[in-house]
Amino acid sequence: MIKISSLAHVYDKGRRLKFPNWEIADMEQWLLLGASGCGKSTLLNIISGLLKPTEGEVLINGTDLYTLPARKLDRFRGRHVGIIFQRPHLIRSLDVLDNLELAAVMAGLPVDHERNLSLLAGLGIAGLAKNYPDELSQGQLQRISVARALVNKPDLLIADEPTSSLDDENANQVIRMLTTQTKDNGAALIIATHDQRVREHIAKTYLL
Ligand SMILES: Nc1ncnc2c1ncn2[C@@H]1O[C@H](COP(=O)(O)OP(=O)(O)OP(=O)(O)O)[C@@H](O)[C@H]1O
After folding, report:
1. Where residue 195 falls among pLDDT bands split at 50, 70, 90?
2. Distance from CA of residue 149 to its chain's centroid?
3. What pairs with residue 30 in β-bridges?
4. Is residue 126 domain-resident?
5. Which terminus of the chain has a smaller tally of CB atoms within 10 A, N or C?
6. Any coiled-coil ranges, and where (predicted)?
């Protein structure tokens, strides 16, 4: 279960961004909606352990994220939270499979080669395992980001506008992958989006 309470954040010279309390039960799937600039990416960064909020708490399975020392927090995030950013962040000098394997290594987990290949196959991109990021389209990179976020079987998968660069067919495939893979892995899912195609698939909404 994920719980945020009394959260607020102030960037240098910025206004105070305040976030309503939120409880996400195991395996629940949520949309995070709100107008541009209202703080969706900020909230996702806070929940995923990347940005310490000015006020409030984030509990993931009973662990209060921001009481952990930095190294423990990094490791906790690597094991429990999968993140898909607006733009894919892949290591250019590593091929696709090595990028997936790096996610496990960084979290101190063993590499599961078969699982990584089957994640790629599930997204229809098994043939790209040995390609380098520079050789791939935006849509292919986005699907690889989805696979990489699932490598460590996270409790929570967070996706920030995961379908914005995809055509209908690829968007549908990614939404299906996100919703079914998170269920199969017992993970909760948060998707921040403006994309109507995603809104049709997920019932619960947190509005900022
Ligand atoms: N690193 C930063 N430093 C200072 N201000 C920031 C920073 N990141 C975001 N902000 C400000 O905080 C507010 C919320 O930004 P955020 O990116 O979280 O909104 P958002 O809802 O995700 O927007 P969008 O839908 O356009 O991506 C905005 O006013 C933005 O300018």
Report:
1. confident
2. 6
3. 190, 204
4. yes
5. N
6. none
Mutation probe of ligand 1 site: the residue of 7, 38, 50, 158 with most atoms within 8 A of C-beta: 38
Q: Nearest C-alpha to atom 8 of ligand 1 is from which residue?
A: 42
- How far apart are alpha carbons 184 and 131 in whole angstroms? 27
- Token pair in block for residue 114: 């078969």
Inside any domain, residue 142: yes
Is 42 a pocket residue for ligand 1 (Cβ < 6 Å)? yes
- 40 close to ligand 1 (CB < 6 Angstrom): yes
Q: Does residue 7 contact residue 18 with C-beta atoms inside 8 Å?
A: yes
User: Could you give the number of structural domains in the chain?
Assistant: 1
Residue 191 lies in a domain: yes
Whether 60 maps to a domain, the answer reads no
Query: Residue 122: what pLDDT?
Result: 83
Q: Which of 9, 10, 11, 190 to mutate to test the pocket of ligand 1 (most atoms within 8 A of CB)?
A: 11
Atom 1 of ligand 1, nearest CA residue: 11
pTM: 0.86
ipTM of the shown complex: 0.97
CATH number, residue 195: 3.40.50.300
Listed residue (56, 34, 36) closest to 47, CA to CA: 56
Burial of 197 (0-12, 13-18, 19+ CB in 10 A): middle
Domain span including residue 89: 26-37+67-207
Give nearest CA residue, ligand 1 atom 9: 42
